[in-house]
Amino acid sequence: MARYIKIVVVIVTFIMSYTTYAQQTELLFKAGNDHYAQGRYQEAIDTYKRILDQKVASAELYFNMANAHYKLNNVAPTVYYYEKALQLAPSDPDIRNNAAFAENMKIDAIEPLPENTLQEWINSVLGLLTSEGWAKATVLFVFLFVFSFLGYYFAFGAGRKRFLFISAVLSLIFGITSLSFAYTAFAKAQQDNPAIVFTPEVEIKSEPNLASTQAFILHEGTKVFVLEEVNDWNRIKIIDGKTGWIPKADIKLLNNF
User: Fold this and answer.
1) 134-148: per-residue pLDDT in tens?
2) Across the strands, what pairs with 214?
3) In this model, does residue 5 exceed pLDDT 50?
C-alpha cells in the first residue's frame, strides 16, 4: 500500500511542477508582450530570451522575438527569428508577410539559381507544412483509409460501397504522397543546414584560413547553407551557387533549437 502511495505522490508532484512551470512560462510571455506593447523592445527581447533559455520554443515566441528586433533595426536577429518561426509554422501568413519585410533590411541582394517548373512546384508544396506536419497528415490519411475500407467492407448498397471504395483509394494515395513529402522535407532540412550571417560584414575565403584569397563578401542577415565543417571554419553555399569558407563564429545555425 505504501508503495502505491509513493507512486501517487510522485505523479501528483510531477503534475504540479509541470503546471507551475507552464504558468511561469505563460507569465513571462505575457510580460514580454506587455513590454513590446509599451515600446520597451529590448526589455521584451530579454524576457522572451528567458523563455528560450528554459528550452521552450514556439512559432509565436520566435515571431514576437523577431518583431522586437525589427523595431530596434537588429538585422541579423530579425531575419534569424523570422526564419525560426517559419520552420515551425511555414504557412502562417503573418510570419511570411513580416519575413518578407525583413528581407528589405539586408544589404546582399543575391539572385537564386533558376529552378525548373517541377522543382519549383515541389518546393512550394513542401513549404506548406513542416516535416512533422506532413507526418501528421500521413497519419490522418491512413486513418481515413482504414475507416473507408472498413466502411466499404461492411456497407450495403452499390452506391455507398462505390463511394467508400473511392474514398479508401484516394486516402491511400494521399497518405503515400504525404509520407513522401514528410521524408523529403525532413531530408531537405537536414541536408540544407541553413544559417544566418551575424557579422555586419565578413569576407568569405577560398580556403579555411585567413591567409587565403577572398571569394566574396557577405553582410549580416544573409542566409547561407553549411556544407561541411573544418576546425573553426564552415564551408557554405549561397542561393546563387557560390561557395566559400566562413568562420563559425560569424554565423548562427537555424536547425539548433
Assistant:
1) 888 899 999 998 888
2) 205
3) no
Cβ atoms of residues 90 and 129 within 8 Å = yes
CA dist list (Å): 160 to 7, 73, 170: 51, 61, 15
Query: Is a pLDDT exceeding 60 seen at residue 4?
Result: no
Cα–Cα distance list, 172 to 97, 146, 179, 246, 250 (Å): 35, 9, 10, 46, 46
Measure the CA–CA gap between 128 and 109, rounded to whole angstroms: 25
Angle of the 117-126 helix axis to the 158-192 helix axis, nearest 10: 100
The pairs formed by 183-189 with CB atoms below 8 angstroms and a separation of 24 or more are: 183/131, 184/122, 184/126, 185/126, 185/129, 185/130, 185/131, 185/134, 186/131, 188/126, 189/87, 189/131, 189/255
Residue 12: predicted pLDDT: 39
Write down how long the chain is. 257
The structure's pTM equals: 0.71
pLDDT, average across residues 34-62: 93
